[in-house]
Amino acid sequence: MTLAQLAITVGLLCALGLVAGRIGLSAIPAYLLAGLLLGPNQPTATTLIQPSEVTDFVAEIGIVFLLFFLGLEFTLDRLLRSGRHLGRGGIIDLTVNLGLGLLVGAIAFGFSFAALVLGAAIYVSSSAITVKGLIDFRRLADDETDLVLAILVFEDLVIAFALGFVGGGGGELADTLSLVAKALAFITLALAASRWLRGPIDHVLARLPREMFLLATFAFLVGMAALADWLGLSEAIGALMAGIVLAETAARNEIEERFFSFRDVFAALFFFVFGLSIDLDALTSVGWLLVAAVAVTLVGKIAAGYLGGLAGGFTRRQGFNAGVALVAHGEFTVIIAQLAAGNPAIPRGDRADLVAFAGLYVLVTATIGVALMKESKALGRRLFARPTLRRGG
Amino acid sequence: MPVDLRETRLPGVGVKYGFRLGNGGRLAIILHNDGPREIYYFRRADDEEPRAVLRLDDDEARQLGAVIGGAYERPKIVEELEMALGNLLIEWVVVPDSSPGIGKTLAECGFRARTGITIIAILREPEPVTGAQPHHVIQRGDTLVTVGKAGQYAAFRRLLADGPLDPGPSPGAEPASQA
Are residues B116 and B132 in the same domain? Predict the structure, then answer.
């Protein structure tokens, strides 16, 4: 990748991101689309960038930053404060959507590890797109928004766990189970460290001059990612842990502020690089899968919001709104597919299908999801009679 | 005093506060983790769409909070002056944009003759009018500094907003000693 190519790439990311923002969409599908355009697959007329070691490395840094920021938001305190909807709503969502996802996966890939990966990719909604929609469409003041956010927190938990083995599992059952155990141990250790090491970490960070603060944090982050990689877990879980360890420190806000721009740049490049490997020709093999998965997502997510809403004492309209807000899939689906693409235990053909599927699936659900969310209140008024049960305040 | 102030955490977004209003409406205030505040006003508590949404950045929100909370209410010197005035009040009254008084002189409006309220100054950009005279003309955007008794202000505000209901003293009858 030359500097000129990088300039064109970043310029296109910015332009498409702006267009997406104009029409009310998240930037994630725009970045994927940019990768699709400039990548080696169809359309070939605009091919500019070939996937290489450089692009892979940039994507890896992107994953590291995305997961680091997820980790920074990930404190025991926050989990406890997420309130009463966390368990009930989260478990309903998990049962319905992981169940449906696994069903689609089993039909596509048989009873295999790839089916599990596909199930996870279909299960997990996009926190980034949903939260942006809630803000843009002025839903933050609505009661059902609490339910939506609690479900997203629950999904984060499940995915943190899944990231531990998606990239390396799928061989011998015992190996996969040991990976799961390692991932669990890793997350527990990180949570413990965030409790007990808070003082010493703050002590060290507070004494560092500006630049060294930045470098020390970055070294810690990449070091944790490398350590996790070395242990056979994915770099993603290492980065997540680094975030969790720092989440309760006094330096957290400063770290977030300093690294926001790094995350934004590298996350954009990560989605772009993933877009490079989307092969539209694969539509012939994943076309039906895409249609089935989108249908299942619409039904499953709306049902989960609706049922979770009724269980939580909301009206039918509010439950419908909550479900629609969860339709959009994004960053986690892409991250799961990217990690699975590097997993030698999954057959080559299945990996290619997973990548093509995840890219197109995110493009479709992110678009439909946001469009539906915008109209969900009007739709709810048509579908459901004036509710009799109201929650106050 | 809203007793039902509800605080809800919005994971990844911030904190939400909500309470019902005496008129049946509802307010929700969202403090975003990254600084901005949003105020949602619902005309009725169970409305699906907010009637108004106000989005403020950190500085603006603090300014608004200080004003509403009373930190900027009145300069100290005015409070002392009020004490000296006994049961007389000094009030700042903003002229509504629809006021029929706009474009008329203070004498034509006849505030003192009709309500007993005296206008002592007019605050406007760029130069305020100190020592308002009967010939001074009210302009759009003016704030009137007034002296009067508490009971007279209701009538004064009605007159300023809607104009006279009854034919009052003829124009020019306002005594020249207005200031």
Answer: yes
**CB-nearest partner of A377 from B12, B40, B48:** B48
Whether B168 is covered by a domain: the verdict is no
Domain limits for position B131? 76-162
Q: The whole model's pTM is what?
A: 0.74
Q: What CATH topology corresponds to A53-383?
A: Na+/H+ antiporter like fold (1.20.1530)
- The model's pLDDT over A254-286, given as tens digits with 9 standing for 90+, comes to 898 889 899 999 999 999 999 998 888 877 888
Q: Distance between CA A180 and CA A190 in Å, rounded?
A: 15
Residue of A nearest to B50 (CA): A138
Cβ separation A393–B30 shorter than 8 A: no
Q: What is the DSSP string of B79-116?
A: HHHHHHHTTEEEEEEEPPTT-TTTTSBHHHHTHHHHH-
pLDDT tens-place string over residues A6-33: 999 999 999 999 999 888 888 899 999 9
**Neighbour order of strands in the sheet with B37-42:** B6-10, B14-20, B26-32, B37-42, B52-56
State the smallest CA–CA distance between residue A73 and chain B in angstroms.
7
CATH number for the domain harbouring residue B144: 3.30.70.1450
Both structure tokens of A387: 């509710």
